[in-house]
Amino acid sequence: MLPQRVLEEIQTNRQRYVAELKDFLRIPSVSTDSEYDKNTQESAKWVVNKLKNLGFQTELRETAGHPVVCGHLVSDTSLPTLLIYGHYDVQPPDPLDEWITPPFSPDIRDGYIYARGATDNKGQCLTYFEAMEAILAVSGKLPLNVKVLVEGEEEIGSPNLGPFLQENLNELNTDFIAISDGSQFAPDIPAITYGLRGLSYLEVGVQGPRFDLHSGSFGGLVANPVQALSAMLTQLKNEDGTVAIPNFYNDVRELEPRERQEMADLPVDEVALKKYLGVDQLVGEPDCSIVECKTARPTLDVNGIWGGFAGEGAKTIIPAKAGAKVSMRLVPNQRAATINELFKNFVSSIAPPGVKIQISEMHGSDPVLVERDQPAVQAAARAIEFGFGKSPVYIREGGSIPIVGLFQEMLGCKSILLMGWGSPDDGAHSPNERFSLEDFHRGILSTAALYYALEESFEG
Amino acid sequence: MLPQRVLEEIQTNRQRYVAELKDFLRIPSVSTDSEYDKNTQESAKWVVNKLKNLGFQTELRETAGHPVVCGHLVSDTSLPTLLIYGHYDVQPPDPLDEWITPPFSPDIRDGYIYARGATDNKGQCLTYFEAMEAILAVSGKLPLNVKVLVEGEEEIGSPNLGPFLQENLNELNTDFIAISDGSQFAPDIPAITYGLRGLSYLEVGVQGPRFDLHSGSFGGLVANPVQALSAMLTQLKNEDGTVAIPNFYNDVRELEPRERQEMADLPVDEVALKKYLGVDQLVGEPDCSIVECKTARPTLDVNGIWGGFAGEGAKTIIPAKAGAKVSMRLVPNQRAATINELFKNFVSSIAPPGVKIQISEMHGSDPVLVERDQPAVQAAARAIEFGFGKSPVYIREGGSIPIVGLFQEMLGCKSILLMGWGSPDDGAHSPNERFSLEDFHRGILSTAALYYALEESFEG
Question: Which CATH class is domain B198-252+298-365?
Answer without folding.
Answer: alpha beta
